[in-house]
Design goal:
two-stranded antiparallel sheet; eleven-stranded mixed β-sheet; 9 helices; about 25% strand; about 290 residues; alpha/beta
Length: about 290
């Protein structure tokens, strides 16, 4: 099902917009679109909305399972504006957002689906979940000059750190809020603007009519931006992303200076949540 824009989509789908969990996937280019959709369809979302200017050819079994809304994901504030436009119409549905060539993993995601994940999280009185964007990248840029190679994808097994997120007015640390850094954005920081270097996103959240997303993937409700409740650690998720690798290989200033993404802390990505748990990149909290 296709719609010419967000207004038409909202008008036609008012009732079904509230049926979650919902995945909203922004398609910026033609890279790994089908594999992204296939991965998230397997996680058990009730609905997947794809926001894109155009889509490459997709297998029929995938195209039949998604709703496409024609939208420019590259314009300024594209994600923030789209989410905030949809927000008042999604009731209290659980929502997940990502881009193409990104893949969601959470503890035990091979055997538990997304609905089970957020159902447990809601029982913990949480309305949002911290997600880390973990860079994956081609192990051989000569063989994959785009930086994207699913069969030979690597990630950094170390080099991640956190800093306190400070209030803009008081400059004091915010309670239970941290900003996380690492991966390609840390190792090649000279090519990445400072405001784009953090790797944390509140990519999983429960919609509320009065909630607003900010440009940096945080929300107007400060509790949504916390990494855990006051009592114990909560579940965290990871989005394994080729997006930074794509950008570094595409941008003229970086592509001529980077010949290899791998270093001594690179590890072949096994496409399993257990590897991410073992590396400490996701947290099961009290969910066993």
């Amino acid at each position: 099902m296709d719609f010419s824009g967000l207004d038409e989509f909202i008008s036609a789908q008012k009732a079904t917009l509230k049926k979650g969990p919902i995945a909203i996937i922004f398609v910026e280019d033609a890279v790994e679109v089908e594999s992204t959709l296939e991965h998230h369809l397997a996680l058990g979302f009730k609905q997947i909305f794809v926001l894109a200017q155009k889509l490459p050819g997709l297998a029929e079994e995938i195209s039949n399972e998604i709703i496409t809304v024609y939208y420019d994901p590259l314009k300024k504030h594209a994600v923030r504006d789209a989410i905030n436009t949809l927000m008042p119409h999604m009731g209290d549905a659980w929502v997940y957002t990502c881009f193409n060539a990104e893949y969601l993993f959470f503890p035990f995601s091979e055997t538990r689906n997304f609905a089970e994940l957020v159902a447990f999280h809601a029982e913990e009185r949480r309305d949002s979940m911290l997600s880390y964007v973990i860079d994956i990248y081609a192990g051989d840029l000569n063989a994959a000059p785009s930086g994207v190679d699913r069969e030979n994808a690597y990630l950094d097994k170390a080099g991640y750190y956190a800093l306190a997120r400070r209030d803009d007015k008081t400059h004091q640390p915010k309670e239970r809020q941290l900003e996380f850094f690492g991966g390609l954005k840390w190792r090649f920081e000279e090519f990445v603007p400072y405001e784009r270097r953090k790797i944390d996103r509140i990519a999983i959240f429960r919609a509320r009519a009065d909630l607003r997303m900010r440009d940096n993937f945080t929300f107007s409700n400060e509790e949504y931006n916390t990494h855990s409740c006051p009592w114990h650690n909560n579940i965290t998720a990871a989005i394994l992303s080729f997006r930074t690798a794509k950008a570094l290989c595409h941008n003229p200033s970086s592509r001529v200076k980077i010949s290899d993404f791998t270093w001594f802390n690179s590890a072949l990505f096994t496409w399993s949540s257990q590897q991410l748990l073992d590396l400490g990149l996701i947290e099961p909290g009290q969910w066993f």
